[in-house]
Amino acid sequence: MGISRSSRHKRSATGAQRAHYRKKRKFELGRQPANTKLGAKRIHRVRVRGGNFKYRALRLDTGNFAWASEHTTRKTRIIGVVYNASNNELVRTNTLVKGAIIQVDATPFRQWYEAHYAQPITKKGAKAQATASSEEPTKRSNHILRKLEERRKDSKIDLLLEQQFLAGRLYACISSRPGQCGRSDGYILEGKELEFYVRKLRSGKQKHAHGA
Description:
- It is a single chain.
- This protein is 34% helix and 23% strand.
- It contains seven helices and eight strands, in the order βββββαβααααβαβα.
- It has helices at residues 89-92, 107-117, 123-135, 142-152, 159-167, 178-181, 191-211, and strands spanning 37-38, 42-47, 53-60, 62-67, 72-83, 101-105, 169-174, 186-188.
- The protein has a five-stranded mixed β-barrel. It has a three-stranded mixed β-sheet with strand order 1-3-2.
- The longest helix has 21 residues, at 191-211.
């Protein structure tokens, strides 16, 4: 039996079994789930209704992630899946789906921040830069210095984000559909949303510790 998206086999709202008045139709078909895993990029092109194409990502290891508060987007490496509200099995198997909470490499975002604000993103980096700048200071025009001073007024970042930058990994959420468009793009978690998922991850670890 093929996979069907029709609801004719379902019971009605009152519980009655519906009469079978026709067979399955081509326009009701469903396909196997993509179950996109972490790995070297592998995408299949699938011809669909109307002669259109879907891009079925079977494996992905990078994606474009937006840092909303800084209005910038960077392509970065996906490290792993850490949380999925629908199913823990998707975390264990590192399956990339829309809405999955993942960890991404922080390096492209750190490099952008340090180039944009001309200052390190963490206190640890500030100490390292202080020793480096004492050796050879970078020459900048007065115009550039004024521009950097203006930018630095808004350069404060969240404490939770700063801790993640120290570790070199950021929490992000996938907002694209890898099995449909062949991409795993999303956004960096910040603010209340980040706090919520950090709490979820901590409580999950505690449960596993008590279970063991």
